[in-house]
Amino acid sequence: MTDDERVPPTSVPVSAVPPASVPLRGSEHGSALGASFYETVGGRPTFEKLVHVFYEGVADDPVLRPMYPEEDLGPAEERLLLFLEQYWGGPGTYSEQRGHPRLRMRHAGFKVNPDARDRWLAHMRTAVDALDLPPLAEETLWDYLQRAAFAMVNTFEE
């Protein structure tokens, strides 16, 4: 290909391009080289609200509530908060306290069927909507949550 056949560079200034939703890292376990999704959407307060609104729905759900053995949903709320913070580029507290997430393994003892998945997603949809995120951030978060919910299904029994 000659220089004349190459596509000309875009005229969009670099400063107009939004940061990547997942940060680039200097090495496999290195620090982020740019803003993380976590930082872009508001950090801990955003994820605290997401998880709190989600668990408000779970508290009264007859299918999901029995999956949480603690009387108080506070410990579960904290675990999900720490997991989501770490996943989206925030502090690595989840792994420091609990090790590798191993989501499927941690949920294996519960009957996660399509009904449970759909209820989980309904409560999470309410929580995501409560954040009033910009459209791209909302779609990025929702896409992940949907994929995670479908991956947790471990039975088709009622």
From TrEMBL:
<dbReference type="InterPro" id="IPR019795">
    <property type="entry name" value="Globin_bac-like_CS"/>
</dbReference>
<keyword id="KW-0479">Metal-binding</keyword>
<dbReference type="Pfam" id="PF01152">
    <property type="entry name" value="Bac_globin"/>
</dbReference>
<protein>
    <submittedName>
        <fullName>Globin</fullName>
    </submittedName>
</protein>
<keyword id="KW-0813">Transport</keyword>
<keyword id="KW-0349">Heme</keyword>
<dbReference type="InterPro" id="IPR009050">
    <property type="entry name" value="Globin-like_sf"/>
</dbReference>
<dbReference type="InterPro" id="IPR012292">
    <property type="entry name" value="Globin/Proto"/>
</dbReference>
<keyword id="KW-0408">Iron</keyword>
<feature type="compositionally biased region" description="Low complexity">
    <location>
        <begin position="8"/>
        <end position="23"/>
    </location>
</feature>
<feature type="region of interest" description="Disordered">
    <location>
        <begin position="1"/>
        <end position="26"/>
    </location>
</feature>
<comment type="similarity">
    <text>Belongs to the truncated hemoglobin family. Group II subfamily.</text>
</comment>
<dbReference type="InterPro" id="IPR044203">
    <property type="entry name" value="GlbO/GLB3-like"/>
</dbReference>
<dbReference type="InterPro" id="IPR001486">
    <property type="entry name" value="Hemoglobin_trunc"/>
</dbReference>
